[in-house]
Amino acid sequence: MNQYETVFILTPVLSDEQMKETVAKFKKLLTDNGAEILNEEAWGLKKMAYAIQKKSTGFYCLLEFKAEPSLINKLEVNYRRDEKVIRFMTVKLDKYAAEYAIKRKNKYAKKSEEA
Questions:
Q1: CA angle 79, 83, 84 (to 5 degrees)
Q2: Can you tell me whether residue 86 is helix, strand or coil?
Q3: How far is it, in rounded angstroms, from Cα 54 to Cα 68?
Q4: Sequence-distant (≥ 6) Cβ neighbours of residue 15 within 8 angstroms
Q5: Nearest-angstrom CA–CA distance, 73 and 94
Q6: Which helix (H) or strand (E) holds 115?
Q7: pLDDT interval class at 104 (50, 70, 90)
Q8: For residues 13 and 58, is the Cβ–Cβ distance under 8 A?
Q9: Who's near 3: CB < 8 A, 6+ residues apart?
Q10: Which of 40, 41, 76, 93 gives 20 to 30 Å between its CA and that of 85?
Q11: Stated pTM of the model
């Protein structure tokens, strides 16, 4: 199993509940197909560098997981089919990126505890 990281941007017109339901749907898709979710980060509503589909903001979400390579195609097809997803990107992490992801996760956890 390889380690992957996927970031997707959801349309800003969603309510907070709809956004959480969509993220849960993609997490369920991963776990149902044998993936192990290592980390989840909701970055919230952020301004984008350029407008996509006439929208200048979007809900950003990151999922880090271990899965078989064949699952990535199924995940990305589901991203394309969901009209709530504006953009997405999935990358395979090498050993250096995986080490950095652990450091980032620990830093993010500390910020969450302090807030």
A1: 85
A2: strand
A3: 35
A4: none
A5: 19
A6: none
A7: confident
A8: no
A9: 38, 64, 65, 66, 92, 93, 98, 101
A10: 93
A11: 0.85
> What single-letter DSSP state applies at residue 17?
H
- Residue 55 makes CB contacts below 8 A (sequence gap 6+) with 11, 12, 13, 48, 86
Residues 13 and 34: their CA atoms lie apart, in Å, by: 32
Residue type at position 60: Y
Among residues 58, 40, 49, the alpha carbon closest in space to that of 101 is found at 40
Dump pLDDT digits (tens) for 45-97: 999 999 999 999 999 999 999 999 999 999 999 999 999 999 999 999 888 88
Establish how many alpha carbons lie within 13 A of residue 95's alpha carbon, considering only the half-sphere containing its beta carbon: 0
Q: E strands within the chain? A: 2-10, 36-52, 55-67, 85-92
**What sign has the CA pseudo-torsion 12, 15, 17, 18?**
negative
